[in-house]
Write a structure and sequence with these properties.
The structure is a single chain. The strands form two sheets. This protein has a five-stranded parallel β-sheet. Strands 1-8-7 form a three-stranded antiparallel β-sheet. Strand 4, helix 3 and strand 5 form a beta-alpha-beta unit. The chain has four helices and eight strands.
Length: 185
């Protein structure tokens, strides 16, 4: 039996586009340009957010920065606790991470466990100068001491709520939805 939920859209397509644009400008400003930067998206929605940021940064600066994609499946700390066999979709980092400033991109920051696993993947490719975290949504409730350097939107949530980022590339629509379980009467 599936739990019934009330869903409310907290970011529509326009708000999502604005958040990506604002974050791209912040990245360029804070880094004084794009020299030595690279984006690495966490599969699957972090990959799409990273691609959008890359396009926006290219629009702003006229330069395409390197883009990689990582799959954290085999780096998860709950791998032994999962019922199903994990599906690995692969990692693609075709540039040297050594000494580079890496912008690690994901859709939602929650407990911090995905970010910890993603950093392990990146470090397996070399030692970057710095890793900064970029997220479309920060919903709080960290279990690890991890924070985002660039945030599209802070969304205070209840731990029982679910935050779903839907992107046109994989879901056919751009929106962020908070789903709240309806308590049984």
């Amino acid at each position: 039996m599936t739990e019934r939920c009330e869903a409310r859209v907290v970011m529509d397509a326009v708000a999502t586009q604005r958040a990506v644009s604002r974050v791209a400008h912040e990245i360029v400003e804070k880094n004084k340009g794009t020299e030595n930067l690279a984006l690495v998206g966490v599969r699957s929605r972090g990959e799409h957010v990273a691609m959008r940021l890359r396009r926006k940064i290219a629009e702003i600066e006229g330069v395409e920065i390197p883009l990689g994609v990582i799959d954290i499946t085999l780096y998860r700390d709950d791998l032994n606790h999962r019922d199903q066999q994990p599906t690995v979709k692969g990692t693609d980092i075709s540039f040297d991470v050594e000494g580079r400033r890496i912008l690690l991109v994901d859709d939602v920051l929650y407990t911090g466990r995905t970010v910890r696993a993603a950093m392990d993947v990146i470090v397996d490719f070399g030692r970057p100068e710095k890793i900064e975290l970029v997220v479309l949504v920060d919903r709080g409730h960290r279990e690890l001491p991890i924070r985002a350097d660039y945030v599209g939107k802070n969304l205070p949530t209840n731990p029982r709520e679910r935050v779903s980022v839907r992107l046109a590339e994989c879901d056919g629509v751009d929106e962020v939805v908070i789903e709240t379980p309806l308590d049984e009467q």
